[in-house]
Amino acid sequence: MTQPNTPSTAYLEAMEGDVAKRVASATPPEHTEEDYPGQEKAWDASAALAEGLRETAAHIVADLHAHPETAFEEHRSMAVLADIVEEHGFSTRRGVYGVDTAFEATWRSEDFDPKRHPTVAILAEYDALPQIGHACGHNIIAAAGVTGFLAATAALVDVPLPGRILLQGTPAEEGHSGKEYMIRGGSLDGVDAAVMIHGFGYDIGAHAWVGRRILRVRFRGVAAHASSQPFMGRNALDAASLAYQGIGLMRQQMPPSDRVHATMAGGDRPSIIPKSADMHIYVRSLGTRTLMDLSGRVEDIVRGAALMAGVEVDLEWDEHPMTLPVRNNAPLVERWAATQARRGRTALPAGTVPDTVAASTDFGNVSNLVPGLHPMVKVSPSDVALHTEDFARWAATPQAVDAAVDSAAGLAQVTLDFLADPEFRRAAREDFDKQGPVAVDTLLAGGAGTPARN
């Protein structure tokens, strides 16, 4: 019995060597806590409060890890998180913004005026992957978001600031676009910045996240006896095979950061020419324009394959809304790096880990509408990949709890700084604006989709 070849680790080892050199030569953050006068008391308070919530963070990390729930099915996970927030004196709204498993809690100063005072949304994901559970560490994201919100709002008792802080539970990121559904329901109305974290094998202030579109294809041919009358058939599986090979050949002419991956299925038995075949295709790119260009090229291949095989084809783009590339915001990232230096972590600059090591997230949709922070926080060894059973194991370790607590302190500190510092807010908005027009029209043209309901 033959075994699959073991993939070579040569490329990964070479990449790790290059990354190690960059890490060794990385300079400390250009700005440190001393550059943010007047915030020492708030930072000290939020850091102490985050540490005081370590047991809560550990409970969330372990509980969600032990009870993983997939997209739009996170009823228990939502309840666990909302209950904790309510135990700390907040009311929560559940099933908000058109998504059954989303929730929101709000803190606002007594004098809050949306025309004069800022609003920060702290986001918490909590969906898991099928079969392998929290192999993307969303249990850590949830723990960091919830305890970061609690630390920030508790610090405001002694360091009062005008403004509003939202904690938004954002389900259905894996293979879906939960945040985009919430956006269409109004989740970002009045929000000036949104912040969250993601677990990884490195501490990185800003990393590349590619946009993603989903294409469903159905080829429809004519069934026939594969031996006695094959000439009377039109083979739908042939069309799927041609499309699969065409995508493979196109890869040579794709930018190195672009990705296309597909599955296909068709036919019932070898003696019958398949009359139908299906493909499920992911298209990814670092830019919105390049994502749309790559989408057009994939569609041309699919239609060409149908023409060659003499079959009909139905295409459905974006059963769920597309996810856009993340816009990293330099002032937010800079402030994040300063908070993590206090925790003994060095948040590496963008580009330390190659852009080709990139996945997709629906936070990209958020960051195209408001200034956004989405840093990576080290949970596992650097050679452990997301979406693997190995990372799922690391997501339930003491290192995962440390990551959640350090992140909670950082999220709280960045949030408090945003409320306190109008120059910081102005810089974040200017950085956002200079990245160009928002790709809302492109996003809406990609299809709305309908979230699953239980």
UniProtKB/TrEMBL annotation:
<dbReference type="InterPro" id="IPR002933">
    <property type="entry name" value="Peptidase_M20"/>
</dbReference>
<feature type="domain" description="Peptidase M20 dimerisation">
    <location>
        <begin position="216"/>
        <end position="303"/>
    </location>
</feature>
<dbReference type="InterPro" id="IPR017439">
    <property type="entry name" value="Amidohydrolase"/>
</dbReference>
<dbReference type="InterPro" id="IPR017144">
    <property type="entry name" value="Xaa-Arg_dipeptidase"/>
</dbReference>
<dbReference type="Pfam" id="PF07687">
    <property type="entry name" value="M20_dimer"/>
</dbReference>
<dbReference type="Pfam" id="PF01546">
    <property type="entry name" value="Peptidase_M20"/>
</dbReference>
<dbReference type="InterPro" id="IPR052030">
    <property type="entry name" value="Peptidase_M20/M20A_hydrolases"/>
</dbReference>
<comment type="similarity">
    <text>Belongs to the peptidase M20A family.</text>
</comment>
<dbReference type="InterPro" id="IPR011650">
    <property type="entry name" value="Peptidase_M20_dimer"/>
</dbReference>
<protein>
    <recommendedName>
        <fullName>Peptidase M20 domain-containing protein 2</fullName>
    </recommendedName>
</protein>
<dbReference type="InterPro" id="IPR036264">
    <property type="entry name" value="Bact_exopeptidase_dim_dom"/>
</dbReference>
